Amino acid sequence: MSSLALLAEIRQSSERRPYAVLKLAEPLLNHGEISSTSEDTWLVYEQVLLAALDEGQQTLADSLLGLLRTRFPTSHRVQRLEGLVKEAMGNPDDARALYNTVVSADPTNVLVLKRIIALLIAQDKPSLAIKELVAYLDTHGNDFEAWIQLSHLYLDHHMYRQAAFCLEEVILQQPANHYFHLCYAEICYTMGSLDLALKEYLRVVELATDNVRGFYGVKLTADRLIELRAAGAAKSRRDAQLPFSLDAVPQLPVLEKLSQLATERLVATYSANNAASTPTKALEDWLKQ
Amino acid sequence: MADGSEQTMFLDPAIRDWVLFPITVIMVLVGVFRHQLTILMTGEPPKPEPKDIRQGKALMRGQILAQNNAYIPSAAFQQRKQYLCAAYEEGAYLKNKASKEQSAANLMTDPKNMEVMMDGMKKQMMGIVPQTLIMGWIQFFFSGFILIKLPFPLGVRFKQMLQSGIMTGNMDVRWVSSLSWYFINLFGLRGVFSLLLGGENAADGTRDMTAMSTMGAMGQQPGQPQDFNKQFLSMKDNLAIVYHEWDLENVEQRVLVKYGKQPRLFKSARK
Fold first, then answer.
1. Which DSSP category does B80 fall into?
2. B chain contacts of residue A257, beta-carbon cutoff 8 Å
3. Please, which of A35, A177, A214, B68 could form a disulfide with A205 given CB 3.0 to 4.6 Å?
């Protein structure tokens, strides 16, 4: 396949492969082949510019930016790229000023709104980033990736309740994706809502057979709940600072069955790939590949 | 002229050259012209403002909540339901809260909506006017003679419509005038237009006819601005009656059954 076709494929799949893109584009740019081909030209320039920023090639990025600006002087899309270059060169304030002008001209430009938030995160200003992100989500409530980003920001600050809220929004929009249930389960487990955590972990292994993280979660929660049940019968309310009531938890036999199931499946998964019974052996196998 | 099942007439070839082809060619050209003109007139679709987007997405949030409520725990659902119902009730998401009490008539005076409606009406004009013009032109110039013979038979009732200019007693209905050729072209050129102008084109005559009929049926002006307040209130009612059944209520059983630790129980025997 020609380089152009490969580059187009990478654009389609929206993967981030800066090294591959630069290698493919290098001959095209150097030998001037790219300027003759009509439609793709500017798309390729944009793609290579982003790859150059990823790989730290400032001069290449600058020259491409110059080309794009000459061709599209008033384009918001090019202004966003200009902002990216400024960020890469270490002028976050200039970049922010540029993004602000774009947003005031066009308040619906989602890409630039998100770029501002990303800039704030990169500048390590999480509270500002959270504020902007919440404002963004007030308008665009159906952007589940933004909700995920917000949950990451909250988790960095151990604000588990808020992170759980974000994940609930994500699950509402993508209920069949086991990964989101997994994230939600782990947040619940960390918060101490073990009943909810157990149910969510079970949902994960229901949606994705033999999901190892899920089964680890099932085992840990089930065992902890067994302990609590056993202890709760004996001790009075001393230790009962639980954020949930033990009545919501399944009965002891069910818990034990679940714990047993988890153990079995984990052992089966790890021994299923014939070789590795020890880490050393696994490493050897992998090195031999 | 033979009287009988098979009437044969010999038509002047000049009719074919000067009527048949010109009508088709004119219709194709007018169609293309309309298409280009529509593109020129409508220009870029109006860009939504953030407040509009917010309105629309708030409604979507309610829909998603109503649809997928089973997948989040009851407490989470209740929290969201209460919040959204309160917000819909007091119009927190409306574009301009002051207009909440306005009737539909006032909505029309909103300048942005005026533009949308004018655009809709302009499009309709673009559809109807050329059709009427061509029909009139055909009636004026090309009436009073037979143009073509249809390859399929028709009922007698069509005689009046399709042989409009020609008063004869027993001429077969299959011989039709130029007006019916116009109608044949109207429906048939759709394929040609989609070849020439791509799938979504404004040159399609049938589209205008269906638009006219639906407009009559719905009794609503084209491009009327949606009344978000009403939609919010109806969504609030929908949410209020949702009965939350948590999908994960018996997930333990389902998982145990899935991994073969427990035989599948029938519904009646469910714990």
1. H
2. 256, 261-262
3. A214
Residue A218 and residue A262 in contact, taking contact as beta carbons nearer than 8 Å = yes
Residue found by looking up tokens 């050729």 in the block: B181
- DSSP letter at A246? G
End-to-end CA distance of chain B: 88
Length of chain A: 289
Cα–Cα dist A124/B9, whole Å: 90
- Has residue A249 got a pLDDT over 50? yes
Per-residue pLDDT at A66: 92
CA dist A214 and A68 (Å) reads 48
ipTM: 0.77
User: How many CB atoms are closer than 10 A to CB B172?
Assistant: 20
- Amino acid symbol at B8: T
Spatial distance between the Cα atoms of A85 and A49, rounded to a whole number of angstroms: 9
d(CA A96, CA A86): 9
Residue keyed to tokens 């939350």: B244
Task: Give CA–CA dist A56/A148, Å, rounded.
Answer: 28
Judged by a CB distance cut-off of 8 A, whether residue A82 touches chain B is: no
Strands B146-149 and B175-177: antiparallel
Q: H or E segment at A221? A: helix A212-234
pLDDT band at A269; cut points 50, 70, 90: confident
Strand partners, B149: B175
Q: Which residues on neighbouring strands pair with residue B175, listed in sequence order?
A: B149
Residues of B with Cβ-Cβ distance to A254 under 8 angstroms: 252, 256
Mutate to test the interface with B, among A137, A139, A173, A174 (most CBs of B within 10 A): A139
Amino acid B7 reads Q
Give every CB contact of residue B215 below 8 A, 6+ residues apart in sequence: B222
User: Taking CB atoms and an 8 Å limit, are B256 and A257 in contact across chains?
Assistant: yes
Note the pTM of the prediction, 2 decimals.
0.72
Q: Is B192 exposed, middle or buried (0-12, 13-18, 19+ CB in 10 A)?
A: middle
User: For residue A221, what are the contacts with CB-CB under 8 A and spacing of at least 6?
Assistant: A189, A194, A197, A198, A201
Q: Which has the closest alpha carbon to B258: A257, A219, A226, A224?
A: A257
The full DSSP string for B218-266 is HT--TTPPP-HHHHHHHHHHHHHT-----TTTTHHHHHHHHTTSSPPPP
Least Cα distance to A200 among A226, A220, A219, A178 occurs for A178
Compute how many other C-beta atoms are within 10 angstroms of the C-beta atom of residue B38.
Answer: 16
The pLDDT-based confidence of B192 (bands split at 50, 70, 90) is confident
Rounded (5°) CA angle B262-B268-B271: 55
Confidence at residue A206, expressed as pLDDT on a 0 to 100 scale? 92
For residue A260, the chain B residues in CB contact (below 8 A) are: 261
CA–CA distances in Å: residue A65 to residues A58, A69, A99, A220, B251: 10, 6, 16, 53, 54
A141-156: string of b/e by CB count within 10 Å (b at 16+)?
bbbbebbbbbbebbbe
